[in-house]
Amino acid sequence: MYRDDVTALAAPLADAGDFDVLVDRVGDARVVMLGEASHGTHEFYRWRALLTQRLIEEKGFSFAAVEGDWPDCDRVDRAARCLEEPRAALAAFERWPTWMWANEEVADFCRWLRARNAGLDEAGRAGFHGLDVYSLWESLREILVHLREHDPAGVPAALAAYRCFEPFGEDGRDYARATRLVPSGCQDEVADLLVRLRERAAADGSEAFRAWQNGEVVADAERFYRAMLAGGRESWNVRDQHMAHSLDRLLEHYGPGAKAIVWAHNTHVGDARATDMGEDGMVTIGQLARQRYGADQVVLVGFGTHRGTVVAGASWGAPMRELPVPPGRAGSLEDVLHRSAPARALFVFPRSDRPELLTTDLPHRAIGVVYHPDRERWGDYVPTVVGDRYDAFLWFDESQAVHPLTAKAPGGPRFSLPWSAATAE
Predict the structure, then answer these.
(1) Number of C-alpha atoms within 13 angstroms, CB side, residue 146?
(2) CA distance linking residue 234 with residue 153, whole number of Å
(3) What share of the chain is helix, strand, coil (3-state, %, to 5)?
(4) Do 394 and 47 form a contact (C-beta atoms < 8 A)?
(5) 342 in the Ramachandran plot: left (φ > 0), alpha (ψ -120 to 50) or beta?
(6) 3-class SS at 390?
(7) Is the peptide bond before 97 cis (omega within 30 degrees of 0)?
(8) What is the pLDDT of residue 186?
(9) Around 267, how many Cα atoms within 13 Å sit in the side-chain half-sphere?
(10) What local confidence, expressed as pLDDT, does residue 229 receive?
(11) Does the chain have fewer CB atoms within 10 Å around its N or its C terminus?
(12) 3-state SS class at 413
């Protein structure tokens, strides 16, 4: 079943030149989102980087925006703009899961980006930015540093927010629990800080924009902590809505004609409405981008593998491990492609007259940063209508683990997440 569909759609993928048909499909799109079925697979990072290089060079894309923290990725952006060495900036990532961005594959891409940018003026340089919401404390510290240097009159507002959160430590759960007794929490302090940062960003350029984005992280992280305690879909939605708003701010900051490439997990890149996530009321940045910019201005690309190895942890904050990826579940998208597709293949989906493979609901694997291969039969798959969830798909029958920059023990974990977020991270 589906063999003829796969044969008709699949194109062998040998090198970056085989992306021609996908680059043509991108056309004049404003946003391209490139997924991954795990945060620990070499092939996903490597081929995503190769496609990104072509889009920057040939289609004039302005920046890569990733499922990473703004302050950490801001150091990488400065490195890519020839202000420091990219590998050192990536090696400074300390919070679990460090391997997600501090890996050799991302370092190779960032070195390419730095070399490419070196021959251009600032306006022509492509950037590297983080979209995620987790860095409340790091963002607060960055704001204080910025204000002390550029706007001393704004320091009291930042200190008020900092001191409001300080009694709860850096574990968002403690703050969230406290808001049950004091419903207003730190919202007023964060709002006052954000108003000032927004006003400065409107007038003062890139450095002020960086501080403003840190302020938006603090505001949405405060909301995320509250929602996290309740569990369910709301914490997921706060996070993806934050990433969508961050993307929009970056596009506006880069100016008219700006175009973005997003790197994130399939569970964020894919359109939630084509999965059971949508039935549960969850949204994704892929869905939100289609709704905001128009489906013709957004290209969503999923990634998948049948078997191999992956880097993940046994629990939140646990040491990274290289783990086996067992063969895809019988009847899954991965099983179908294993039986019929080339070992490495590119699928660019037709806009109409789509075959059954693209319109049928199939289980589609999603490996998180916490992973137990022996438990796959009970989870790790998202029911998916693949032709609605993505516009294209990259397939690797056998894949290998990503190469972390360091095996040192990471800093503290982000924090515990509700099951829905943890399984799809």
Answers:
(1) 26
(2) 36
(3) 55, 15, 30
(4) yes
(5) beta
(6) coil
(7) yes
(8) 86
(9) 26
(10) 72
(11) N
(12) strand
Using one digit for the tens of pLDDT, what is the confidence trace for 244-268? 999 999 999 999 999 999 999 999 9
Query: Which of 253, 179, 181 is closest to 210 using CA atoms?
Result: 253
Helix and strand numbers (H, E) in the chain are: 19, 11
- Parts of the chain with a pLDDT under 70: 83, 171-172, 179-184, 203, 407-425
Residue 350 neighbours by CB under 8 Å, 6+ apart: none
Torsion over CA: 335, 340, 344, 349 (sign): negative
Instruction: Indicate the DSSP class of residue 296.
Output: G
Q: Residue 315 — φ and ψ, nearest 5°? A: -160, 175
d(CA 411, CA 168): 18
| CA–CA dist 90, 136 (Å, integer) | 19
Regarding pTM above 0.85, the answer is: yes
The whole-number pLDDT of residue 424 equals 45
308 strand-pairing partners: 325, 399
Distance (Å, rounded) from C-alpha 131 to C-alpha 63?
A: 12
Residue 204: CB atoms within 10 A of its CB come to 14
Distance CA 425, CA 423 (A): 6
Closest CA to 424 of 255, 269, 193, 259: 269
Strands 321-325 and 298-312: antiparallel
* Residue 322: strand, helix, or coil: strand
pLDDT for res 334: 98
DSSP letters for 33-84: EE--S-SSBHHHHHHHHHHHHHHHHHH---EEEESS-HHHHHHHHHHHTTSS
What pLDDT does 414 receive? 42
* H-type alpha helices, 255-355: 266-269, 276-279, 285-293, 333-340
Going through 84-216 in order, the beta strands assigned E by DSSP cover: 127-130
Query: Residue 249: its pLDDT value, please?
Result: 96
CA–CA separation, 388 vs 218, rounded Å?
34
Backbone dihedral region of 330: left (phi > 0), alpha (psi from -120 to 50 degrees) or beta?
A: beta
